[in-house]
Amino acid sequence: MSETNLKPTLHLIQKNLSSSEFDLQINRMTTNSDQLVFMGDCVFDLTVLNQSINHLENLTIYAIDSDLKARALTEHLSQQIIIIDFEQFVSLTIDANKVISW
Fold first, then answer.
1. Which pLDDT tens digit goes with each residue over 74-92?
2. Beta strands of the chain (E only): which ranges?
3. For the whole model, what pTM was predicted?
4. Domain spanning 3-101: which superfamily?
């Protein structure tokens, strides 16, 4: 297996999604090692998607700290969400096999 196949796909969530849309897209577009980053106004969705996110055991889910703080959403998030800064976000994009925006 090549090194590229070992790297995850990074999904940038930039579009507001309902719980049912999110669940459908997750099933269609992701594999077990993928990573999701919620950014911009989509961090608002994290409060609605808590139940869906709590069922995702194999995906790594991130949210950008400055986006959360700008929208006063630093609390009431799923324990599975990893809060990252912009430098960490850039590292994720560099380390990813490919980056997909939704």
1. 777 888 899 999 999 999 9
2. 9-13, 35-38, 60-64, 81-84, 98-101
3. 0.87
4. DsrEFH-like (3.40.1260.10)
